[in-house]
């Protein structure tokens, strides 16, 4: 039986080169410095911003990516999440956050749709998200698809929440969680950014929120009833 | 043992006949290159080039004919005497090579390695609770020092460690009473006399049997195993825990390190590798994804959450980037043979640490600094997460690690000289000297240099091993194994 390997997209190397070219042009002239475009403030600010946007998008894309039936590497997830946090910190300190629409208000918008929100390249390409029946009484009858992660995602993956979690506080989800599964992030810890990688049994419906400057993405999960029941049976 | 099946060389040791991926011998820089292809009829090595009369088929060495993803080598390890070399692959197989006895008649063919045993160590499994496959890929192999005629090794995939016994059988009993030579049961009424079975010589058979299976102790992926110098215990390490086992006991293990936070949201660091000290049986070290190493003493407490020593180099703020943390993640940690130093490998460098000095490494070697400007691309194509291993030579004077484009690097700690070599068929001809390679970073590219943009990032050398006493190294390049040895004057 063949093992499964991760496919490397060699061609992406060239695409990425173009985008971060400005930063790397600098690099070729100053080899020994080893920085990613941090030298010249005026010129590199823009390229750094570009690079940050690129890295942000890639982070999200990678965190959402999964291989059916194969566990994700915890080390990789942790490194990606830490990079995401770092970018978010920077965005926050740059004052980017202030441009954001408050997440709660997004819920109330009637025309709240997926195509309004996404700036993340990976998500906007639409990785055929699964259909999600609306399970919770949040008053929103919008379907929020963009889950690239299905319930086959490893329990070791990370979970993230928007500040929107407050809205769902009254819903008891303790029975969905096990000691081995990562539970939801504290709400607001990653605001305005959120990433959800749910374990196979867990599900919550998360309306999307968006940001004008940065990229926001919240991922939604199917509830696999069978897995869920299995989990409860095993626990008891 | 060998025969040709069409274009492929097959080994009759196992049933069904196994196919062996390319094994070639070359030599290191400055020394004579001894090239030998696996051949059922040993050829005269004084020949300068292959001739048609030899049964050498170059298609054997092409890796696309029959090589599949399962053939990708995932670990290589010499045993403690250097007599055996084990490789594990993605398909869960272990292939063990044995060094042949040196022959006086052909001194230039000093002890070359032949396939000794091949067996399926791990099979793919399915975790029904999580609906996930457990890969059969062999992550690590560690040998036990030899204590009798048989050889023992530990092999592990993501979840289960197994102890394998490899033993030879060259006699078999003949003359059974109840069955005849073909194994058919004899009709008891035809037996008129009794005889005692006698041991008769037979063709050498090497068999591998699983003696212990150490399972169900790891929720996360096992990244390393290490045998203790007491030869009674070993540790297995996953992303968050280190477990201590007794080699005789499979249903119990002791958790000695646990960095799992109560709240998984707070997890920011994982364990990447762990190893026992080569002489002190109570000391071990583990490395993290944040670039730190912790040395622990098992005598202090049952749970070694408090480290004895903490090794970390403060970050240089001028080189900080989005990728700083990722490239600081340590992919391998190895004690020196003398037990005084630690070596760590992160994405761009190899560092040697003095166990007595925690605040900075003793030495830092740049493996491929020209990649520093390409980190964004390497992040996109995931290469930045590649985990390279590093290895000491027997005298702790030279360290070696792999890179991309099938390059590998050696650093002489005394002379501070370093060399880049390439494991590639095209560059390895009989009796030729292996040429040092050089990557040019911008500016004019000299002849024979290769530019950074031409590097093939799909050809990475992650796994290497060094003979414990001699200058013989084994290098895994995807699904090909290269064994290099130096020339004897």
UniProtKB/TrEMBL annotation, chain B:
Family from the record: Belongs to the phosphatase 2A regulatory subunit B family.
Keyword Signal included in the entry's annotation: no
Keywords linked to the UniProt accession: Repeat, WD repeat
An example Gene Ontology molecular-function term: protein phosphatase regulator activity
Organism: Amphiprion ocellaris
Keyword Repeat in annotation: yes
GO cellular component: protein phosphatase type 2A complex
Name of this chain's protein: Serine/threonine-protein phosphatase 2A 55 kDa regulatory subunit B
């Amino acid at each position: 039986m063949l093992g499964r390997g991760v496919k490397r997209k060699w061609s992406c190397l060239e695409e990425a080169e173009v985008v971060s070219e400005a930063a790397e042009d600098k690099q070729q002239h100053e080899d020994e410095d080893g920085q990613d475009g941090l030298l010249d403030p005026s010129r590199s600010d823009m390229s750094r911003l570009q690079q940050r946007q690129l890295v942000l998008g890639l982070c999200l894309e990678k965190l959402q990516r999964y291989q059916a039936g194969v566990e994700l590497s915890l080390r990789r997830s942790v490194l990606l999440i830490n990079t995401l946090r770092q970018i978010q910190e920077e965005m926050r300190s740059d004052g980017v956050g202030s441009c954001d629409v408050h997440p709660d208000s997004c819920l109330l918008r009637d025309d709240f749709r997926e195509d309004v929100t996404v700036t993340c390249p990976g998500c906007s390409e639409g990785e055929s998200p699964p259909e999600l029946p609306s399970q919770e009484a949040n008053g929103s009858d919008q379907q929020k698809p963009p889950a690239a992660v299905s319930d086959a995602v490893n329990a070791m993956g990370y979970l993230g929440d928007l500040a929107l979690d407050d809205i769902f506080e009254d819903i008891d989800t303790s029975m969905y969680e096990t000691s081995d599964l990562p539970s939801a992030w504290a709400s607001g810890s990653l605001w305005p950014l959120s990433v959800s990688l749910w374990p196979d049994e867990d599900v919550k419906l998360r309306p999307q929120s968006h940001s004008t400057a940065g990229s926001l993405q919240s991922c939604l999960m199917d509830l696999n009833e069978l897995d869920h029941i299995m989990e409860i049976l095993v626990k008891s | 043992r060998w025969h040709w099946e069409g274009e492929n060389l097959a080994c009759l040791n196992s049933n069904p006949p196994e196919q062996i991926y390319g094994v070639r011998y070359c030599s290191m820089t400055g020394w004579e290159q001894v090239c030998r292809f696996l051949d059922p009829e040993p050829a005269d090595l004084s020949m300068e080039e292959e001739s048609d009369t030899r049964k050498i088929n170059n298609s054997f060495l092409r890796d696309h004919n029959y090589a599949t993803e399962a053939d990708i080598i995932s670990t290589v390890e010499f045993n403690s005497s250097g007599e055996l070399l084990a490789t594990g692959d993605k398909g869960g197989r272990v292939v063990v090579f044995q060094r042949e006895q040196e022959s006086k008649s052909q001194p230039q063919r000093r002890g070359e390695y032949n396939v000794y045993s091949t067996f399926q160590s791990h099979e793919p499994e399915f975790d029904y609770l999580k609906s996930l496959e457990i890969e059969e890929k062999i992550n690590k192999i560690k040998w036990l020092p030899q204590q009798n005629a048989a050889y023992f090794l530990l092999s592990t995939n993501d979840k289960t460690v197994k102890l394998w016994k490899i033993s030879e059988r060259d006699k078999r009993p003949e003359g059974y009473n109840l069955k005849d030579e073909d194994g058919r049961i004899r009709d008891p009424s035809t037996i008129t006399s009794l005889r005692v079975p006698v041991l008769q010589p037979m063709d050498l058979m090497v068999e591998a049997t699983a003696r212990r299976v150490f399972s169900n102790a790891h929720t996360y992926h096992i990244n390393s195993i290490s045998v203790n110098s007491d030869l009674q215990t070993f540790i297995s390490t996953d992303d968050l825990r280190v477990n201590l086992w007794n080699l005789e006991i499979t249903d119990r293990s002791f958790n000695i390190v646990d960095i799992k936070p109560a709240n998984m949201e707070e997890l920011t660091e994982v364990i990447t590798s762990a190893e026992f000290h080569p002489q002190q049986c109570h000391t071990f070290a583990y490395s993290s994804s944040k670039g730190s190493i912790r040395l622990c003493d098992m005598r202090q407490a049952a749970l070694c959450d408090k480290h004895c020593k903490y090794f970390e180099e403060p970050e240089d703020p001028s080189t900080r980037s989005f990728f700083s943390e990722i490239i600081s993640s340590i992919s391998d940690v190895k004690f020196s043979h003398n037990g005084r130093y630690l070596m760590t490998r992160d994405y761009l460098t190899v560092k040697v640490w003095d166990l007595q000095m925690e605040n900075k490494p003793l030495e830092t070697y740049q493996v491929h600094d020209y990649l520093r400007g390409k980190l964004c691309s390497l992040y996109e194509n995931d290469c930045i997460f590649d985990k390279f291993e590093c290895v000491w030579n027997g005298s702790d004077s030279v360290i070696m690690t792999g890179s991309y484009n099938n390059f590998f690097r050696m650093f002489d700690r005394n002379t501070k000289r370093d060399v880049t070599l390439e494991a590639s068929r095209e560059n390895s001809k009989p009796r030729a000297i292996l040429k040092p390679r050089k990557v040019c970073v911008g500016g004019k590219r000299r002849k024979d240099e290769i530019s950074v943009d031409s590097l093939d990032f799909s050809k990475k050398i992650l796994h290497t091993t060094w003979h414990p006493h001699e200058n013989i190294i084994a290098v895994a390049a995807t699904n090909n194994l290269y064994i290099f040895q130096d020339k004897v004057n």
